[in-house]
Structures are given as C-alpha cells and as structure tokens.
Amino acid sequence: MECPASASASASASASASASASCSALAEAPCAQAFCEGHAKRVETSESVNTTVVNGETITITTKVVDGKTITTKVVNGETISTDVVDGDVGASAEDSEEYVYLPPDWEERVARGEDLDSLVETSESVNTTVVDGETITITTKVVNGKTITTKVVNGETISTEVVDDDVGVSAEDFSEYAEVPAYFQERVAKGVDPDSLVETQAEEASNRSVKIPQRTAPRKLDYSDSHEGKWSFPETAFSGAYCWDSDKKQPEVEKRQGAIETGKDILKNNKETYEGMYYDTQLLDAPEDQQEYCLVKRSTSGFRLQDREGQFNFVKSQYCKLPAEDEVNAVYDNYTDTVLNTYSNVSGLGKPVCPGRGQGCADDPGLKIIGVIDPGDVSQGSVGDCWFLSALSALAEFRGAVQKLFQHTNFQDMPKDEFNHYVVSLYDVTTWELVDIEIDERLCTHAESGQLLASRPSIDGELWVCYVEKAFAAHCGGWNKIDGGSPTHAW
Length: 492
Prior knowledge:
The protein has 492 residues and is α+β, with helices and mostly antiparallel strands.
C-alpha cells in the first residue's frame, strides 16, 4: 500500500514519493501515518517550508496540502502569527489567500483522528471601508476560534494585522476610531520608530481639521510661582550705565531709590519675581549710606539689556537658571547651527548661539517648555525676513494637534531636559513631497553685536516650539538666506 508523503509540495517530488515512501518517511507526515495506523479517513498531505529574515525578524512560511486544502502557516521569531486555509487550490500560497483563519494548536492530531478540517474552524467576519485624505482604508475584523484578527488595508496595501485573544464579540463596528497611518509607516517602523508615534486616529484628525483652538482671552504673563530657590543667582556685570530694549516693546520701568546699595541688593533678592535686576554707580560705594542710591528694574517683556560691558556702573541680575549651564553638560552639536545657519546676509554678523534656560539670557523661565497652550500669538518674528513662513505657522497654530504633529518624533512633553537637547521636526520636502526628519540641537542663533536672538523669540511663558520649527525649516532649506522672502502658500 502506498502513502504519497513528501517533504516538498512540487509535483515531481510528489510523484517520486509514490513508489518509495517508507515508514521513516511516513513518520514525518502525521496525517499519512494516521492512515497507515488503520484510521478510517484517508488523508493526502505534502509540505514546503520557506524561511527568510526581514528587519531582523525570522519569518517562516510553511505550506501544507491536506486533502486538497492548502494550509499556510506564518511563524515570526518562533511565534505563530496566522494560519490560512484555501479549499481546492493545491498551488495556493499566503499571497493567494483572501480568508485568514486560525486553527487550534492540535489541528493536525485531530485531523489525523478523523475530524473534518472545516469543523475545527469557527469564524465570523465584518468589513468596514472609509476614505480619509483620499486614501481608501479597509478594516477587516474576523473572529476565529476565539481570536479577533483586525487587518488594516490602505489603498490595497496591508498595513497592519492585530490579533486579540478571547474577544469573540468584537467586530469592525465596535472600533469607533480608525488609525490613520502615513504612507511611510512601514519604512519608519523598519528604522525602529515606535508605531504608536506614527498613528493618529481618524476621529482625532477630523477634530483637528474642523475645530479651531479657542482664541486667548487674556495676555500671557510672566510667572515665577513654580521657581525653585536653589536655581536663582545674582551675578554682577560692569557697564557704562547705558541700556536699551526692543524697539517694538514698551520702555522698561526703572525705580530710582535713595539709600544703601546693600539694602537695594537685599530688596532685589527678596523680590526676584518682581525685579529683574538693579544697577548702581560703583563710585558711591564709599559714600555714606544716606548719600548712596540705586535703581531697580522691574520685570517685563521689554527685552531690557545692557549696551556695553565696561564702565563704572554695576548691574546685578536676578537670574533664574532652570537647566544646568551649557559647560556642565555633554553638548553634541547638530550639523546645521555652525554651518549653514552661521551666516545671514541681512545682518552684520552672527554671535555665539545661546541655549534657552541655561542662564544665557534666553528664556530663563521656570515654565520653560517646547509646547504649552498653543495659539497664533506664540509667533514673534525676529530679524529674519520669513514673515511668509511665520504667518503660515501662526495659521497652523489655530488647529488642535497640528503643531504637535511637527514634533511627532520628539518626546516634547518631557523637554527640555537637563542634558543637552536635540529635537526632531518633521517637514515635507517640496522637491519629493516626502516627509523628512530634521534633527537640530537646542542652540538658537544670535546677533553678534547685541547678543539677541536672530530669529523668532520664545513666548512670554517660555514656549519654544516656534523657535525650533523655524530653525529646522531654515536648516532644511539650506540657511537663513534661503528663507528670506516667500509665499505663505509655499510654507503650507
């Protein structure tokens, strides 16, 4: 009696096995062995195995033909992911299959005992198709032997398959939110990007487009209520007595007082949230206390700064340093700040870049953050002629979630951190229409003469997102000169 068992699904191998099958060969074919042991059900079987490695994962596809049914099993890193059954199509493979089913682990033994293969499969299916941004998204949910299998297909391409055990009642209608995965999903995941960071639900996307962020009803204010006592310092700097402020701001308020200079320093230290500094004439230090005088500078958004760093006056700064000083951290610089972003033809020269929150006079604010409560008023143009870009950015800020999406590959909720910070900003490349990631460091470019920021300024309450989006945009375009002049529609 012959049992056509073979280790290959090819026709030639199957034919040659018909005359040479032995007991040892049958031992490798449980279904055929069942016949030889006297079971009533005749079972014909053949098998082929294909193993490949993709993105570090070992994927094994095993195809068995059992009584005219092609059973394809996919195993990834030793774990069975799916089993596919097709009737009457001996040459079928996983790619040919339209219906995915899960068989119980002991299916081979039970078939060998005479059970009908179809009786081992319990399955139900529901399909829901929707169109988002011109992409046809089909969610197919099957419940097979207690396993819920949800497959997402975008424009005919399978994007993801999710399996949940023991949740028989779930169907496509139960999924109220459908994940919208960008076209570059598989490429990003292959590079190690967390899939969750690439997903935004259709419901969220629709909300972001239709619901604008409410307009701010009250102006932002400086807030030092969350400051830590140990992060305050009061450095002194010599200057000529001349100071200046931003031309688009109100003149800083200065209180001139008679009395001991040391008393003035104490007032400053005890009211550091109210005053940003005090200055005095050093020639008065030897005068009687009743003849001494000093000036207290009230905190404001005026951009108060000293005009020079030499002279007979001293300025005592009430300085808050949220983060460690730059020279106290291991700074690894990006590829742009000291190269393509180091020049701008419309200014006389660029100075040393500054790090926000590190006591360098830029956003030394206890509320320092990348993104807080976003609104269009966060945008404050600097000296770069990119109002066209910033106006588009301001419009973008009106829509919930839009700005956050620019930082989709940056854990901005916990930043800036004490260590030297890097940020990834995701922008579309106008030459390829592909999304690209621009990685920049925390430094912001400055004017050589004044030391003030070259480009956009942080918001009053310490938001930095505008500064870094603008920096990333300039870096991607090839420098500040490349974004000097343009159209808001181009920025979009």
